[in-house]
Design goal:
The structure holds two protein chains of two kinds. By secondary structure, chain A is an all-beta fold. Chain A is 0% helix and 56% strand. Chain A contains no helices and eleven strands. In chain A, the strands form two sheets. In chain A, strands 2, 4, 5, 6, 9, 10 and 11 form a seven-stranded mixed sheet that branches. Chain A is globular, with a radius of gyration of 13 Å. The N and C termini of chain A lie far apart (36 Å). By secondary structure, chain B is mainly beta. In chain B, strands 2, 5, 6, 10, 11 and 12 form a six-stranded mixed sheet that branches. A four-stranded antiparallel sheet of chain B has the order 3-9-8-7, with no helix packed on it. In chain B, strands 1-4 form a two-stranded antiparallel ribbon. The chains are: A mainly beta, B mainly beta.
Chain lengths: 111, 116
């Protein structure tokens, strides 16, 4: 299995632009998680899905952030408009039991 | 109150020696799980070991073991026979509730450096 796939691996954009991060979970996993990692706040959960349905989005910082999971093999995290404080590494993880498998992350830099 | 506390700012260990990384947690839920992840400089998150709150024995996975002290609410990671490749950031995390799948709350992490 290829593991959790995230794209792009690196993204540099300017403030105000729309950013879309993509994730393909491991086949057969029914849970998908989006995390954000910064030096100041550490690793924090943004949102997670079960069977494509959002279960808990209490970690989504603002209305500028939105996440979708249109099918079992694809999810997106969108930031519109982006701000410099959104600069972070964004991880996607998937699971079918207690162990979460993480993707390689997307390093986002907003100038 | 923080749910996961990792207070050691940075740890150093000599190659081939054992090292303990501390983690304390806070929950009122009787059912929970504790995890340790490793994050090397390349950035990926690697699962190391898991301990369930009802597990009778401490979890072990190769050179990793978890010193689970339920009454003290601590779940320290012990790495035996340290290797240079163990140099990384280590995160303790907790899942609360009986459901196998629920969100993880992570600690701030501990940096481990293994000296040759």
């Amino acid at each position: 299995d290829a593991g959790v796939i995230q794209s792009p691996r690196h993204e540099v954009t300017e403030m105000g632009q729309e950013v879309t991060l993509r994730c393909k979970p491991i086949s057969g996993h029914d849970y998908l998680f989006w995390y954000r990692q910064t030096m100041m706040r550490g690793l924090e959960l943004l949102i997670y899905f079960n069977n494509n349905v959002p279960i808990d989005d209490s970690g989504m910082p603002e209305d500028r952030f939105s996440a979708k999971m249109p099918n079992a093999s694809f999810s997106t995290l969108k930031i519109q408009p982006s701000e410099p404080r959104d600069s972070a590494v964004y991880f996607c993880a998937s699971s079918f039991n207690w162990e979460q498998f993480f993707g390689p992350g997307t390093r986002l830099t907003v100038l | 109150a923080q749910k996961i506390t990792q207070t050691q700012p940075g740890m150093f260990v000599q190659e081939k020696e054992a090292v303990t990384l501390d983690c304390t947690y806070d929950t009122s839920d009787p059912s929970y799980g504790l995890f340790w992840y490793k994050q090397p400089s390349s950035g990926e998150m690697i699962f190391l070991i898991y301990q369930g709150s009802y597990d009778q024995q401490n979890a072990t996975e190769g050179r990793y073991s978890l010193n689970f002290q339920k009454a003290r609410k601590s779940a320290n990671l012990v790495i035996s026979a340290s290797q240079l490749g163990d140099s990384a950031m280590y995160f303790c995390a907790m899942r609360e509730g009986a459901g196998a799948n629920s969100k993880l709350t992570f600690g701030k992490g501990i940096t481990l450096s293994v000296r040759p």
